[in-house]
Model the fold of this input.
Amino acid sequence: MLLDVILCGMILAVALAAVSGLGVFRAVVFFVVHGVLVSMAWLRLDAVDVALAEAAIGAGLTGVLLLSAVARLERLAGGGAWRQRVNVLPAGLAAAGVTGALMWAFLGLPQPAGLGAEVAAALPRAGVENPVTAVLLNFRGWDTLLESVVLLAALVGVWALTADDDWGARAGVAQHAAPGGVLEGFGRVLPPLGLMVGVYLVWAGAAGPGGAFQGGTVLAAVALLLAMAGLAPAPRVGAPALRLALVAGPAVFLGVGVAGLAWGGFLRLPPDIAKPLILTIEAALTLSIAVTLALLVLGRPEPGDGA
Amino acid sequence: MIDPALLYGLTGAAVVGLGLYGFLSLRHLLRRVLAFNVVGSGIFLMFGAAGYRGAVAEGTAGADPVPQALIITGIVVALAATALAVGLILAHARATGRRTLPEDDT
Amino acid sequence: MIGWLTFVAVGLLLSLAGALWRVWRGPAQADRMMAAQLVGTGGVGVVMVLAALGDWAALDVALVLALLAAFAAVAFVKANSADGAGDPEERAPDTALLQPRAGREGDTDRGGDEGRSGAGGAAP
Amino acid sequence: MIDALDGIDGLRDAASMALTGLGLAFFVAGTLGLVRFPDSFSRLHALTKADNLGLGFLALGLALQADHWGQVLRLALIWGLALIAAGIAAQLVARAALAEAARRRR
Amino acid sequence: MIPGDGAGGALMATVALPLAGSLLAVVLGRHGAQVAGGVALGVGAAVAVLAAQVAGGGVLRVDLGGWAPPLGIALMADGLAVAFLGLGAVVMAAVVAQAAALFSTRGGESRAGYGFWPLVMVLWAALNLTFLSRDLFNLYVALELLTLGAVALVAIGGQAGPLAAALRYMVFALMGSLLYLLGAVLLYAAHGTLDIDLLAIRAQPAPPDLVAAGLITAGLAVKTALFPFHAWLPPAHAGAPAPASAVLSALVPKGSFFILWRLWFEAMPDLAAPPVLTLLAGLGGAAVIYGSALALMQGRLKMIVAYSTVAQLGYLFLVFPLAGGAGAAQPWEASAWTGTAFQALSHGLAKAAMFLAAGLFVMAVGHDRLEGLRGLARTMPMAVFGFGLAAVALLGLPPSGGFTAKYLVMTAAFASGQVVWAGVLVVGGLLAAGYLYRPMAALFADAAPGPLTPVPRRLQALPLLLAGLAIGLGVASDAPITFLAIGRPDAAAEGL
Amino acid sequence: MAALPILILATALVPAAITFFLPQAAHGVRNGLNLGGATAKVALVVWMLVEVAAGAAFETRIPLAPGLFLLLRVDALALLFLALSAALWLLTTVYAIAYFRGKPDQSRFFGFFGLCVAATTGIAMSGTLISFFVFFEMLTLATWPLVVHKQDRASLDAGRLYLGCALPAGAALLVAIIWLESAAGPVAFTEATDLDALAPWAQRAIFALFVAGLGVKAALVPLHGWLPAAMAAPAPVSALLHAVAVVKAGAFGIVRVVFDVFGIDRVAALGVGLPLAALASVTIVWGSLRALQQREIKKRLAFSTVSQVSYIVLGVALIGPAAVTGGLVHLIHQGVTKITLFFCAGIYDERAGVKRIEGLDGLGPRMPVTSACFSLGALGMIGLPPMAGFVSKVYLGLGGLQSGAPWVLGVLAVSSLLNAAYFLPLLYRLWALPPAAAQPDEQVWGLLAPTVVTAAAALLSGVVAAWAISPLGLASLIVERDYLR
Done:
């Protein structure tokens, strides 16, 4: 209990630190820390799948994305004057109002009315044993399909910000590292381990915590590391293989969904073949998610920005 | 004895408030995106805590899986939004040399 | 045993709180990054303990945290290299810079990202 | 897994407690160093100690509590990963700190 | 009601086809326009089939994956949803036709040409889903997809102005998403379901529901650019390339409004309290007046049209206090509800026509400042005529869809004794005449425009066609009104 | 039979729709279409006249919404207006074809011209308030491009003023209609409407809104400002505005509101007739006074219209049988007379470049046909026997006496004096003064022929007023049959 109180206190303190103070860099570092703490909170709340996602995305990729962005932004932005904060009082009042309302609502929640029992009852027909995976890929697969498209849309949006002349170049800023240096060494050691962990997470997701998103994120991190260590250049945005990899997940998912029409309705997975179908979808999704996330973090092609 | 679900739920609500305050008051665009993510994590925490309530009350194995699945979806969607926002911020900075929206300059 | 492990977890958390102070204080960006690194490692420790306390499946979370722990640091050093895409090793460090206490010079984090007061002025 | 005798069990618990306690102590020490030491490089020093040793002892202590070899394996993997990550991160951050200091000096 | 069997094919196709199209466009790059053309045809056919099914068999419901709510997600096509699907199909078809000329990929793949097609189709899928989905979280994902697509489309221009506009849009949209998500989360926590129909049974005036309703309403109001959250809309809609502007202005805000509408009328009609309804309508009225006043002051055509969107969206919010006020003397019921649907449909068609016409003017002149458009009535009569017809629909002059809308809503206002909202309609109509007169006068001015880039006649026909449909909606209101009544919630006739 | 109203509407609508898409050079097709349409319409209206005289009724419903429909219905009053618009459309088309020879943007002009006439036809045949409103607003919109047709500064300003007056008027009308119908249900002109659900003050307010909404088009003071400004438009447009479509639509609407919406009993009970009559009288005098001050021919004519159209309103507001007959017959009489004057003004402008009254000096002998027609028109306006105008004024005067408003005689007298004061000097200049300019050529039959026809009509309808098929006969019939029961 004490543990929970301390954890909550730290989460609050870190959240406060992330939105206060002057430094952007500091705020981002606090956000990374926030991710670590929140993933612990998820464990306390008996949500290992979410803890995995939070650790991989909240503490991992989002942090990397923001850290890179801070430095890039300072490089790009000139010295123009700007205000750190405005509307402090209205913002404070609004935030306090919403918080108060939320607490009031939370305290006023009626008896728990979750779907645990319904999920448990339907689990035998879902094809996987992990209830969270069953919800993600079967009961509410439609959400998940759309979510993979959200990622893709964001990537297309980021690419659309490319300078006209840079279209077709390699994604992101051209990365390089000292040959034989520490970074490169890291880039050689970690990927095999990361690959293993990523694949393990996907495979484990059917029965226990894990799944395509968590595994895909780890694989994306591996790919990013390879790129950052200068070991593998980022792909060109026009590369056909890359594009196929991007759409593989949503396409397979959509394809299975349409095939479901033959079984009586869109996205229907017949119980006896649900497991292989889900595993197929997950495999394709993992590939797409990994590639998409890595490219999202790398950003638009900017060959001119490199050495 | 405090109910942990309640504790985390209220913490989540407070995190939402903090993030919201940052989102509304800060002008540096990256910090606003960051604040957006803070709000998001607060929302998810509240949601997760609400789903955990059931597990505590019924004494069944595990929390409600549906909120967990939704939260995972939400986290990924938030990441997508963050990535697009960061891309926009950088492109905007490149075009204008600003870290903020034009109307937020002095 | 449960009591002890809880105690260890609480102790680890409290020690992380100390690290948080360093993140806040800085002064150099590297200090903040290092402190974050400690929080990450400590987080791995806490998660391991939590795994022992409850669901061993939580070890996977520790695994992912440990795997990604260095990523933030890598992103940080890459972004802060000369062109934003390099590596601090690429150029031999200037020997003059290897003097002790080189990092202890005011708050280097306030160079670029502090609100400059213009006509409207920076809020506190 | 290891469920032979109560005595062994008690012994195992004691060893586990000792090892995790040692790990905790290293972490606390590392934090103290991080907070108290005067400059970036000495702080870095403190940090790596805590990372490597603290986590190592913790892992060892917890491994005694594991009821499956897979868990022990994972604990080892985690420690190994943390070791690599911490070492590399420390190296890189140190160099970055140097570069940062150099930039400030110019 | 037909259970989720094969009958859901046409319904699913309206979402799945654009999704598949966007995936294909990501891969094919250069052939995005052809893919989009195919998708437009397919969705058009699917909507037609769906309309026939709904007209013949009533409301169509599909439980996705065979899992009924609360476990699964249900999609539902009622008259309202199908009408909006139809609006989307028509506008999108015209947009695709114009964009195919604008983003020509002859001579290799280009950045904007590549980005536009997947984004616009993703946006379309998301939009159609907002009309069909019955699940609040699924709607959240749809909204996010809609927003990301829309923001990216605004930014596709690439210059500083559009980028700033896109960022501002993004900031507001993120805010709206968070508030919406908070509300949805609270509702699930309280009732263990996200399904609109189940919520309708379970919702009660308790703290979680009230807070959730407030948060969702606020979030969706931000996304619909309701006054005073409207500041992001005009620069964003004006900054995007014209075909994108047409989509953004005509369709995208309808998605968020649609959810708000469903929420109040279908999920929790009993929670509505008069002060809230009056507040919503009051903000809508303020949007009408303020948006119109600002439109009067703009010097660029696209800005005028964009501010007009702020004003026109304001009308939609009058439905909340006015629903149910049809009066015993009237031969129809739910007049405000039906009128609002008409307003949304007519505005969608007319606004798309205007932005497409504006795009053609920009194509011809190179910019959209009013003084540069002088005399275009002689050189581009079809586009100008289309613009004029669209203006008629926006003004709510007979015989247009806008008039039917105004007539129905105003009748409800008088019949329920809330004359002040009728005043908003009148003043808004007159202000609209003011701000639309300026471009019309410029287009009709006796001046030889400078050197013009020729614009193909077939492109000029598009705005005319859309505007003609907006007029036609008024001439033949009978069938749409009957169709809209399929599956209409009781609260639409009884009031909130 | 039910299709006949639709057919009549189509005679204007279809040529208009096709004309929009014709290239400028397609003169033959365009002229043929428009003349054909106009001729067909006259034929159909004549046929209808015969049928109605034989007791037939024409009614067509076009559904708009459940319970809401456009009702096209031809009663005697509708026929009166219909006949006027059909005949004058044909003549104006002939005139316009000649007038626009060699000028640009003809397709646009004739397209909108056709739309205007279609709208007017619709107004005439409207059987419900909502149908009336639809066509009324359509008329507003279709007229604007005609007013700004020249695309010069003055036209655009006039167009802006026109819309600035007409759109708020439309809004007022819509509010009036919806306010009324929200309490009483859809209003059809044939059925007595029960307005008792509304408080008397509300009924009066609605009546005021109706008058305000319709009064703009009918150019009632102080809502008349747009009409004189609109004389910047080409002559055929002026003819259309002043004689056929716009002001007549307003006056006709007031007739409908008084007789078919409120009913004369209710109008009398509410006590709103007299104020309306007073307003009309003020307009009559004010318009004449302002006309006296104008030095531009078309402007003088325009203010004259302001004055003359209010005769119709005055007659209706007075309610008595003779007054109503006078008002209704003036609908026709003013139409044929004023169109003659505007045709002539157009010829003076086109053929002699004369815009101001000073330029008329000595033109009479040189442009004898035009000037003769002009003189007939002017005399008719003054109300000299046996011209048409005389008949109207006699009935109005009688009506005033009947309705216990003898002051109307004073108004008529003053107005006639003023009419004489601003028209007679023109005639004097035309015929008595020596010429100032070179010999112009008035020999354009396309311009002259319609002018002669309308002038003759203005004379004849006065001369044969006693016949049953004269406008007066028709008006009396309407009054006896429909309104005085």
